[in-house]
Amino acid sequence: MAQNAIQIGPAKGGLGWLTHPYQQRYIPPINLANSDRIESLIRAGNLYLSALDVIALVLENNLDVEIQRYGPVLTKEVSRRALGGGLLRDVGVPVAAGPQSVSLTGVNVNASGGATSTAAVSASGGVLTQLGPTIPSLDPQFVFYTNFAHYTSPQSNTVLTGTTALIQQQKVYQAEYYQYTDFGTYAQLTYTSSWSRFNSALYNLDPYTSGNLDLQVSQNLLQGFGRPVIGRNIKVAKNNEKVSDLQFKQQVITTISSVLNLYWDLVSFNEDLKARKDELATAQALYEDNKKQVQIGTLAPIEVTRAEAQVYSSQQDLLISQTNLLQQETILKNALSRNGVASPTLAEVHVVPLDTIQVPEKDELKPIDDLVKDALGHRVEIQQQKINIDSTQINLKAIRNELKPTLQVFAELTNNGLSGSSNYLLPGQIVADPALIGGYSNLLGQIFKRDYPSYSAGLSLNIPLRNRIAQSDYATTALGLRQNELTLQKQVNQIRVDVQNAVIGLRQARVRYDSAVKARILQAQTLDADKKKYTLGASTVFQVVTDEQALASAESAETQALANYSHARIAFDQAMGTTLEVNHISMDEALSGRVARKSVLPAQLPQVEQPQQ
Length: 613
Fold this sequence. Notes:
about 625 residues; alpha+beta; Outer membrane efflux proteins (OEP); 14 helices
């Protein structure tokens, strides 16, 4: 797997690994610099783009893709949190819809009738609150405690203390280490040392140091027992990482499909602009020819007016076409740049497509059942929903465990020790135990030799009498699982609809294109014939103008049909879930934001006439 372009750096400074857990890690700032690929494709104020270049620029510069790149990083951090016993956070953002073209009159941008994703891909995995037995913190804890004290208290009975004012000096040190495991086990090891001095003659040792090493272990046997219960969030978090990867893939598919639609629309807008220019040139030529014929007296003046009206109508059509083209360029440039059209590199350049829409002689389509089977294996929604069902089943096991009573067994082992100096205030006939006289090493020897051990063991049983909360949680989650299973079946059904509609849309687009081509050819032949008749005086200017308008409409319909076919093909790929494979897109390159393929312009670039702004 390629490295994500978004990386969290280690903490800086401090004492290395010793202090890094307590320092913030380095979060890099956002990157708003475009890749060098854009600069390499600009010549003389024009940005020359092929479809492959568009795909590469989307993977490198598109902000929707860049935003979604944070998803896998965020879910990995949630997994880190789960390893520590924390609740799962809801992170990430939904898949963003791609940009839309300026105007697609007569063009269905979703020719399959539903090829786009019908189920949002969520990185949350469906876990937003904690149900089931409580998950403790799984990070080990070290606690150090110390206390220095001086106490002076008046005494009402000198028999008990041997003094009218008891003075005590005390120093307490305690170190504790404890750890929960994902098996439901709790272990705690505590070492305590206490030094005391009194002004009383009734203590055999003064000063003295007492200490103990205490080990406590507890284990849940019913509720809260086992890794499937305590470690459930870890498994769900790992599933959420897979969901996040799928969500990133869905964003790439959505954005690539939308931007390819923009690109092919730009190609069709260029074709439409050429047709409008030809229409204006024809109308202008007819107008000039009519003026000459009026001057020599072979044509009525009204025919000049009709021809002039056609010129202005053609100019209006040309202006609309130029406007559509310029706006389409702006939208496409914004989709291919991190800082949009504010980039000085892109602000004034015009986009020149290098590819043309190619309609194959025949669409090779498998039978519907085979296509549906392939789509079910590729569509992101199916994979995501299956993972969400698995996560719900993992949680359901833990919630079922909450139905059980709480039974906990525990044991404690303590090694005690005492060591000090003989009290100089003691009467001569009283002697302290020689085994207790000594320094700190004597105390440690007693503890580790277990001279004074203590033991305890027990169990705790807690039985809820009605258990309504656990019963409700289990039933609610189980019903939610059934809903998820039905949703999966609904998505399977929808994918079949998507595939069938995509096939219908593709076939319809081909028929529309073939019909539009034939209509344009026939209309061109009609215009040519009427022009010849007009030259011979057998036709009228009105008929020629009508033919010109009809030809312009036929050319526009052909352009729209061509664009419609490209949309239908893209929608078919989306319905099949094969957008990445068809366009040779590597998810490793998409994740890293670097495309290995170099963009090379052809030696002979097309001549471009800049549209008026």
